[in-house]
Amino acid sequence: MQQALRTDRERTLTDLYRQTFPVVRRHVLRHSGSAQDAQDVFHDALIVFYEKAVHGNLVLTAAPSTYLVSVCRNLWHRELSRRSRQPSAALLDEHAELAEAAAPEVAEAPSGSNSVLDYVEQLGAKCKSILVSFYYFNEPLEQIAAAHQYRSVRSATVQKFKCLERLRNAVRKVAATVLEY
């Protein structure tokens, strides 16, 4: 699997997506989720899978699709647990606040295609550098940590994750606002 991801990443991930996503979507829909929830959970699991596979940390005892379905189920059950602890009125208030906060950002969103790179540009130089180095140039985190003068690789990993979360949130806010109109 690691070799397949390194040699033909796009095809391998597409095949995994086609094979696995319908199972994940069905599971999430049957357990109080939406199609968007299923996509979010699957994409998060796919990123974890890819990073582990590329860095050699992935140990499969079953088929890759089985592993992904298992990770997605765990992520979804964790999300359901988190949602059950949060009162629904608070969720509605939080959703309204996010929509109001996102409205000005829609006007500021890059015009045209709204590609991911447009949103990466808005994150700032440091996040842009980390994400582009890691995802586009496939630089190891050790090299990124050294280039940004982090004390450890773990610090670079945490910063990469924070930047990725900021990117996801920016895209989700704009998507949520667009869907409301």
UniProtKB/TrEMBL annotation:
Pfam families with a match to the protein in the record: Sigma70_r2
Domain (RNA polymerase sigma-70 region) ranges: 16-85
Keyword Lyase: no
Keywords: DNA-binding, Sigma factor, Transcription, Transcription regulation
Keyword check for Transcription regulation: yes
Gene3D superfamilies, A to Z: 1.10.1740.10
Coiled coil: none
UniProt-recorded name of the protein: RNA polymerase sigma-70 region 2 domain-containing protein
Species this chain originates from: Hymenobacter cavernae
Taxonomic lineage from the root: Bacteria, Pseudomonadati, Bacteroidota, Cytophagia, Cytophagales
